[in-house]
């Protein structure tokens, strides 16, 4: 937790904040070992970042006086369409995606995604938000990614995909594509990543017909949680992204 | 496990292999659901890759007839010097590093590495090898990375670092460096990555004095397990790497 993320409910009045949840209180007291008079790096969810003065601590609450003054880092220009990973992998992917500044994520059904994954408690709104918050707190950002579910492949592809491609470059990571994944994209871009085992050929075709270019990372088969940061490292240009 | 990695001891005679360890046997029977007559993708550790015909299975053994015929994917031209991560993070980093084709890894002590990490059972030779094997089996490669420990920072820097830089570009990832991390390195390169919290300024200086260039990934603070694939994605050129 390199930044304490604050929510509107944390504010008692004006710039005064009282934290009472165990996660943040324990982190600040036990890991950061903060005491009255110390300053912490904070950010308001979807808002500015700044500093907080610790004014009072007890075993289960911390009072802060907050001064928010600068913008969070720029968002990544990359939107991601990700075939829904296995729940434990999803957890780590959400943290990574959030930490790397992605602000638009669509979790997609595909033939090789087990339908049962959609029933996982990991997909509850509050669980997803928890992982996204961890990513923001790690990387020092405040803007929560927008996560949507596309639980049916065909309707999503047929009814919605075109709008995602309209003004952006569209790439689909595919081991058998002949074109290597490009480096350093500065323009907005949408990137689709398949499930373990990959998209089916006809799924790849459905993307291609709507303007997606297949790009490869080479012959190595990567786990989704490795492929996501690896692809984002390749695609990202430092200036707009970080 | 996209490839079954074989070891010289697995061969009973000629091209005949008998697997008896639970990990591989269970994977082949339960996950791959292989039966006599099926073909599996295999590779000999540090050797060729190819196909194996399943000739006999029982609950606790599998007999294979192996035909090794093609080379593993090219190695990454990147060598890595990594400040020793926390043991659970090390586990994942080793898998990622191995999956991404890195063949030379030095785990380094640095001021912000807790000394107790060096006592972790995770650092036993067989545990490290286990994680590296998982990475190779994931990405379909056979060549085990060479992992060395540098348990004392100064002696390593003073006595050994120069030889690592002699013929290669040398980069050190550092959040406060002004130069963005380059894209698509095709030439051999050595990359140093600090611990959580970063290298100390004087440690960065020690690297710089020996020819390392500081490169930044931007203002976001990444976990080591995210930074490793992100950096490798940026640095790797697809042709020699994958």
From TrEMBL, chains A, B:
<dbReference type="InterPro" id="IPR029028">
    <property type="entry name" value="Alpha/beta_knot_MTases"/>
</dbReference>
<keyword id="KW-0489">Methyltransferase</keyword>
<comment type="function">
    <text>Specifically methylates the N3 position of the uracil ring of uridine 1498 (m3U1498) in 16S rRNA. Acts on the fully assembled 30S ribosomal subunit.</text>
</comment>
<comment type="similarity">
    <text>Belongs to the RNA methyltransferase RsmE family.</text>
</comment>
<keyword id="KW-0949">S-adenosyl-L-methionine</keyword>
<feature type="domain" description="Ribosomal RNA small subunit methyltransferase E methyltransferase">
    <location>
        <begin position="77"/>
        <end position="235"/>
    </location>
</feature>
<keyword id="KW-0698">rRNA processing</keyword>
<dbReference type="InterPro" id="IPR046886">
    <property type="entry name" value="RsmE_MTase_dom"/>
</dbReference>
<dbReference type="InterPro" id="IPR029026">
    <property type="entry name" value="tRNA_m1G_MTases_N"/>
</dbReference>
<dbReference type="GO" id="GO:0008168">
    <property type="term" value="F:methyltransferase activity"/>
</dbReference>
<dbReference type="InterPro" id="IPR006700">
    <property type="entry name" value="RsmE"/>
</dbReference>
<keyword id="KW-0808">Transferase</keyword>
<keyword id="KW-0963">Cytoplasm</keyword>
<dbReference type="GO" id="GO:0032259">
    <property type="term" value="P:methylation"/>
</dbReference>
<protein>
    <recommendedName>
        <fullName>Ribosomal RNA small subunit methyltransferase E</fullName>
        <ecNumber>2.1.1.193</ecNumber>
    </recommendedName>
</protein>
<dbReference type="Pfam" id="PF04452">
    <property type="entry name" value="Methyltrans_RNA"/>
</dbReference>
